[in-house]
Predict the structure.
Amino acid sequence: MSTAVPTRGSTGSLLRRVIQRATTPLLPTDYLDLFDPLRSGAALRGRIVGIEPETRDAVTVTIRPGRGWAGHVPGQYVRVGVDVDGVRQWRAYSVTSRTDRTDGCLTITVKAIPDGVVSNHLVRHARVGAVIQLDQAMGEFVLPQARPARALFVTAGSGITPVMGMLRNAIDDPDELADVVVLHSAPTAADVIFGAELRALAADGRLTLVERHTDVEGMLAVDELADLVPDFAERRTWVCGPTGMLDALEAHWDSHGIADRITTERFRTTVVVAGDGGTVTFASSGTTVEADGATPILDAAEAAGVLMPSGCRMGICYGCVLPMREGAVRDLRTGEITTATPHESDSGGVLIQTCISAAAGVCDIDH
Amino acid sequence: MTVLQNKSDSPIAHLTPEDIESLGVELDAIRQSIVDSRGADDAAYIRKVIDAQRKLELGSRAVLLASLFPPAWFLGTAGLSIAKIIENMEIGHNVLHGQWDWMRDPKIHSTTWEWDHASPAEQWKHSHNELHHTYTNVVGKDNDLGYGIMRVDEDQRWVPFFLAQPLWNFLNACFFEYGIAAYDLELGRNLPSKKRRANPGFRANVKQTLKKIRQQVTKDYLVHPLLSGPSALTTLTANATANLVRNLWTHSVIMCGHFPEGVQTFERRSIDGETRGEWYLRQMLGSANISGGKAMHFMTGNLSHQVEHHLFPDLPSNRYAEIAVRVQELFEKYGLTYTTGSMPRQVLSAWRKVIRLSLPNGFIANHDRAAA
């Protein structure tokens, strides 16, 4: 919500201005949102219209997006904002649906990860009918315009989801992807997300599926690749899975001098680990401050000459709130840790009270 | 009333510094338990209130399109008055305190919210959240004490100007939102000084406030009346009435918070090096509650739980009722007086003080319960 800003000049602008003057200090959209949160012109939201189990700990969530949804390219992800225990949390999930769905819905497929606030909520507690926040689809993990003659997808766990998004859209057309190998790791056969669909495609001869059941066979090692997929070096390769796997495969491709043939998808660019103190960067002023774990960021920044907004300096007035784009801080009153990562926070960052927050790691503050 | 430090029978004489610190620890524990249990129910509560308030306002304004018809005028005016009170009290005041910031919803956040009030949210947050809530009832620091136009404490020097303060208080009640806007601009301090008047920061604030007031006035006294066509004049009187009702109501609620007899004030020196426990204690002694049912608490924006609000200004308002039970136990345990009373009683008490202190000390006997 913000104060109405009259727009001038365009057709219908007089009417719009009158309506804005009638609703100030709210915007007309604040009232329209009461009745139709998915209408065109509204902030992008979606309504959950279906939740189907995939495995024991994964579900596919069908979302009817608001009219502002611009569609997606197979392989892209969408950031969703879900209220868990009353707190808005943002996460990125790959879009797994076809682009030509007639009902205009999209699907994301979510696997519950241990201690995953949003994934556990979506898998176990989300309800059909709930309204969630959406961003437009993003990401470069997509098929190139010129389709590769031979493709290899190396995935693990929920890493299959962007790949499934690509396969569903391209596999029916022989001109699109003619020769596809999917090398997928999951703890057991039952844990393979889209297992039945992948096996059916393999049985139809439309792709070669290599399943790796890690509970029995152990984790995939890079030196096994040459045996499992002998022509891997000639294939255009996409990889999605845990960071360790991505790092190992990138290094392997690099050592073969074919780094240009591999594309990786990293959802968690950085894992924020809360420590004690850290380097705090203020983007706008370009100042970097070393702050210890017992000093409020406000004090540390002021000592370094950053002009900070401030107020009561005891955590009650909220006059010192600034957005943290990335990092971790500790509430000096309660010890509670607040973290922000670009993928998992509101696009503006997580707002923190600098007067009672100490750095608990490297922090990037938008100020 | 006179500042606590000058009282012969101080209500905190029986407390040792250790007592005060352990009181602080107990209050911190209450705060923590609420923070730990904030969740989906609280979020649903504020969203429901915002949703209902906006629909009530829309509905009332729709009814007022036919305000030429007297029953529509009464119904619409009553609805709009209630909607405006809820918007300022249970929603605006509390959102601007950051009570709902934990939800991380940019639409319901202290940094983005703007309210139906003459004073821009940004300026109000500074004077209210920073100054009043930090320096609660410290004479000379907390301008809420008499708003700079009234004498509300025996220790404030009497000058003949204060003879008329019952009138100032009544006028302030009628135009309360404008009084607040003037107060947030610190007009009393800034206007008389040429140097202060010329300060670019002050000028920018004045400009911002005038723009806000212009938008507010245009909405209530121009756009909506014009939209009502033949009912233009009656819609204008309806909107003016709703604003007046809200001004009188909020003024009364605010008076009950810090002016009734029994509320303590503090010396400027007394807060030097104040500990967390001492700060809590000052909030406990410097605030007064209003007793009543759920509807009363809701319509006052839960400022009827003024003591609890001052102890924990950023905890969600819907939790103050349960906090009050635990806070009252602490008052009892530490032998302190929990000042509370019905709204008529507290309003009367506050008005009595305004009238008594309009005269020099001793002209009218002080019925302060604490001193009796």
The first strand of chain B starts at residue 289 and ends at 291. Chain B has 15 helices and two strands.
